């Protein structure tokens, strides 16, 4: 398989288990990335009449509130992988009935959007946890209207590079599954049918006062999904050694521990389908109407 078609080195059962036990809150890093991704909306003129928030509970509830305020007259769809997570998301997002001022806009809809029904699909910090990313991209593409746009973010290959190097140096199994490069995400977007993908990335360095605080932060962000990870439970002695190694290897001059997170941002459009005409071709009525409205060579 090519690097474009291959999913990350990720164990699907481990991801399914994480989806069930992940804290029902948006991590600080996810909210910060969502805020930075929202800054990019200033360059987009289209005001969505309908939009979908894919993975709102973990992707950023504060960000959802800002988006809902930016598009108060738009229909919003909330999409979660598990029913219990969807219910928790709605409890956090739904507008109280006793506050009429908050009920001017329509309440969000707890369901996947129908095909070709939304102008914007927002997916923050979830794509790197998908065991079948091309299927997920295809679902996003299907939900969008023609000329609708996708906004997403995810973690990139340099994430936790200090921790990965430490594990490798100690001869331990991988600290985490391999993450996809932004250029490969761009190629997958094109293969899925998206047009004009724009990809960029940045590295965010977080610092921690203690090894325990660093590990606590990582525990809230995800788990080690690598199929070759250590297959059993670790003991107290191993954890104590890990904390000593973290303090030694990741500590700076000020004593704080630094950890890198590579964040990838992606934007792409759903363009009208290109129809190849032969001596005899069948064209649907909807496609014909689009071709007549937007004639292109």
What does the model show?
This protein is an alpha/beta fold. The protein has a domain at 12-156 and 178-204 and 262-293: Rossmann fold, CATH 3.40.50.150. 38% of the residues lie in helices and 20% in strands. It contains eleven helices and six strands. The protein has helices at residues 12-21, 28-39, 56-59, 61-70, 83-93, 133-143, 161-169, 182-192, 211-221, 236-249, 285-293, and strands spanning 50-54, 75-79, 118-124, 144-155, 194-208, 257-270. The model is unreliable at 1-5 (pLDDT under 50).
Keywords, please?
alpha/beta, Rossmann fold, six-stranded mixed sheet, 11 helices, 20% strand, 6 strands, 297 residues, disordered N terminus, globular
Q: How is the topology of this model organized?
A:
Blueprint: H1 12-21, H2 28-39, E1 50-54, H3 56-59, H4 61-70, E2 75-79, H5 83-93, E3 118-124, H6 133-143, E4 144-155, H7 161-169, H8 182-192, E5 194-208, H9 211-221, H10 236-249, E6 257-270, H11 285-293
Parallel strand pairs: 1-2, 1-3, 3-4
Antiparallel strand pairs: 4-6, 5-6
Helix pairs in contact: 2-4
**H-E string:** HHEHHEHEHEHHEHHEH
How many helices? 11
- Judged by helices, strands and strand pairing, the structural class is alpha/beta
Distance between the termini: 34 Å
The major sheet is characterized as: 6 strands, mixed
Shape: globular
> If you consult CATH, what is the topology of one domain?
Rossmann fold
| Strand ordering within the main sheet | 2-1-3-4-6-5
Helix content: 25-40%
- Amount of beta strand: 15-25%
Q: What value does the average pLDDT take?
A: 88
The whole-angstrom Rg is 21 Å
Q: What is the CATH C level class of one domain, in words?
A: Alpha Beta
CATH architecture of one domain: 3-Layer(aba) Sandwich
Poorly predicted tracts of residues:
1-5
CATH superfamily of one domain, by name, is: Vaccinia Virus protein VP39
Total strands: the figure is 6
